[in-house]
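A common beginner's mistake is to predict each chain separately and then try to dock the pieces by hand. The better habit, illustrated here, is to supply every component at once so that their relative placement is modeled jointly.
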Amino acid sequence: MSTQPQLGIREKSDTERWVAWSLTFGSYGSFTLLVLAGVVGAAGFPQWTLRLSTYGVVLMLATPTLRLVATFLHFAADKRWKLAMVCVVLLGIITLATITGIHLH
Amino acid sequence: MSVAQILLLFTVGAAAGGLGALAGIGGGILVVPMLTLYFGLPIHQAIGISLLAVIATSSATSSVQVERHVVDIRLGIILELMTTSGSAAAAVLAGYLHKQSLATMFILFLLFSAFNLVKRAWGARNQALETEIPPYTIKNWPGGLAASLCAGAFSGLLGVGGGVIKVPAMYLIMGVPLRVATATSNFTIGVTAAASAYIYYGRGDIVIAIAAPLVAGVFSGSILGAKLAPKIRTTYVLWLFIVVAFWMAGQMLYKLLTGGLAG
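With all components supplied together, the output reads:
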């Protein structure tokens, strides 16, 4: 296990585009919702502020998961099963963490 | 919450995010002391919100770095197996730790990070910028995976990204070029932080009213910092970051000893 030449080669394929898109969509979407929450709050609609803020925070929280799903879909479409499996295990850990969080509530 | 408080949180977030992006270590490490010292938040809540800030910084900067081909995605997702496991387990553990224990660990981690930055800033005085990425072969996987588990645990426990452990591990132990190591670390901290942030959120430690303006600020600061970073000499920013980190560690230590940290 001293050298893994294949794993040292950086991705230069569609994977980068998929990953970048999912991160951009999630983070900018969340930022837009958070800014909107501030604007709506300043306009005097506090109930909408809390709702939009919650959506924004949850979308930011979900952005890395969205990136994992996008990466999994791309690896699966490319039939790179080992890397797709790594993504599935990671999604499993995240799901377990979410369930733990719900139980701790 | 008043408009002035919202704007203050946004500004504090933008400063932490901007400074973190310019210094290349993420702003999460400044968010916890800022929230506990100046906003009187209990440390568990400050850590939960800081994890969201880490996700914002990672998402904002990684989307750009991925398109610049500096992130080793395959290496990143394999290391994430360890970082997320460590992070989720540590987040559960954090719920059972007393605020004093967490604050003490945070102060030690902050000091460790600041000393590391001193070494980096001193070493980078006359160093030329790495413009091309040399070909590399990853070595010592067990060492790298063990360090990633550690970094993940620190992230879940203290609300930091853990880059201060991951970058040297990838660079020195695994033989990854520094620029790739930094970008890949930044890429992995989002998923790592998410694993523990779900637990903090479920536990009710993420207060939406405070998190929303702060995260929006961190996000915009990170974007601005990442755009400015190639244009300005970051050594000065590193020194500023070091001074702020030492100042906050001192303040936290003082409040801890005098019983002034919020419960």
